[in-house]
Each structure stands twice: as C-alpha cells, then as structure tokens.
C-alpha cells in the first residue's frame, strides 16, 4: 500500500469533535434503532442522558430513547461509531472513488477483495460527509447527478428487498444528520460503481 497508509482522515477535526462531545444538544439527537418510531428523527425531545461510556480515551455520553427504551452511545449516531484507528485513511479512499476510481481498481491497488473495498468506501463516504457537514445526498448527487442516483437507489432497494431487508435508502441518507456508517448503504455504492465509466 506504500504511502497510502499516510492518506488519513483529518484526525485534528475528530479530536475537536471529541472535545465538544460533552456539550451535545439532545434536541439534535435521533434514535439509531430502525424499529423505533423515532428512528432518524431529530427534535422530538425523546432522549435523556444515561451515564457515560469510554471511547478514544474520553468520556462519551450514553443516551436512552424514551420511545423505544434503547440505550446507546452518542457515537452511534455519528460517522465515528466503531471506527478503528486504521479507518482514518478511508476518507481519502472514498475521494478516489468519487473521482472515478472503480471498486475493482481500488481493490487491485490496495491488494484487498472488492467486498472489503466496498465496505471501506462506504465508511469513507460517511466520514467525508461528516467532515464536510453535508449529507449523503449532497455528497453523491454532486458526483453522479440526481437521475443516476435515483436509479441506483431504486436498484439497491430492490436488492435489499430480495434479501428480506426493507430499507428506504433515500430517507436513510437524505437527512443532513444521517452521516453514520450503515451496511445497508453498501449495495448503493455497488450500484453507483457501475456508473463511474459513464461520467463525463
């Protein structure tokens, strides 16, 4: 992988995020439980603090949703959830993909299988969205356009439905605060990858 080990996500921004984490606004939180009636909805006032957990050497607020009763770390609704140190380079990998490098090409460059690269690119897109303060919709429509994006969303939803997963992908990623990693978005990345040679 050579110097690509140094292609890191902006860790300084991440450290700033951790420094501010104790001052979170509960009205801007949303429940990550898909079975909850309040999934992905901000401003309902349905969260209470429920202690702390530790991550990345700092105390992270733990929250409880009063609608479904689920408890979760605040990180669970951010792009940094379960992010290992090696994950910081994934933002650059996602930038290469958005720039036209297909998954197969990246797999060859990094010496990994395509499925792993797809997961990394999906995670990297979440990190880019968080860093830029944009949604998945803004990030991807700027590269692919709304027509191709809508087609890819439809195909990915059919793929998921065939496997017993009913996911409204457009609803999942069009909200600015939904920048966290979700494996349901990987089929969307796979579909969009087919359109990369058609760009320009």
Strand order of the largest sheet: 1-2-3
Q: How is the biggest beta sheet arranged?
A: 3 strands, antiparallel
User: What is the average of the pLDDT values?
Assistant: 78
- H/E element sequence: HEEEHHHHHH
The helix content is: 40-55%
N-to-C span: 29 Å
Beta strands, count: 3
Whole-angstrom Rg: 17 Å
> What proportion strand?
5-15%
What general outline do the C-alpha atoms trace? Answer: globular
Q: Which spans of ≥5 residues are poorly predicted at pLDDT below 50?
A: 1-8
> Treating each run of at least 4 consecutive H or I residues as one helix, how many helices?
7
Which structural category do the helix and sheet elements fall into? mainly alpha
Summarize the structure.
With 200 residues, the protein is mainly alpha-helical.
Structure explained in plain terms:
- The protein is mainly alpha-helical and 200 residues long.
- Helix content is 44%, strand content 10%.
- It contains seven helices and three strands, in the order αβββαααααα.
- A three-stranded antiparallel beta sheet has the order 1-2-3, with no helix packed on it.
- Strand 2 and strand 3 (71-73) form a beta hairpin.
- Helix 2 (90-98) crosses helix 4 (114-132).
- The two termini are 29 Å apart.
- Mean pLDDT is 78; it is low at 1-8.
């Amino acid at each position: 992988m050579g110097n690509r080990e140094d292609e890191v996500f902006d860790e300084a921004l991440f450290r700033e995020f951790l420094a501010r984490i104790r001052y979170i606004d509960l009205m801007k939180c949303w429940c990550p439980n898909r079975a909850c009636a309040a999934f992905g909805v901000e401003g309902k006032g349905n969260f209470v603090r429920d202690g702390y957990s530790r991550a990345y050497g700092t105390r992270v607020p733990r929250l409880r949703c009063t609608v479904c009763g689920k408890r979760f770390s605040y990180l669970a609704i951010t792009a940094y959830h379960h992010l290992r140190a090696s994950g910081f380079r994934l933002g650059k990998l996602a930038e290469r993909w958005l720039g036209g490098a297909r998954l197969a090409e990246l797999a060859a460059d990094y010496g990994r299988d395509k499925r792993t690269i797809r997961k990394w690119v999906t995670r990297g897109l979440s990190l880019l969205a968080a860093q830029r303060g944009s949604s998945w919709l803004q990030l991807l429509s700027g590269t692919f356009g709304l027509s191709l994006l809508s087609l890819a969303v439809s195909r990915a939803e059919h793929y998921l439905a065939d496997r017993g997963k009913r996911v409204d992908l457009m609803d999942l990623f069009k909200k600015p605060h939904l920048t966290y990693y979700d494996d349901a978005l990987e089929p969307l990345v796979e579909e969009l990858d087919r359109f990369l040679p058609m760009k320009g």
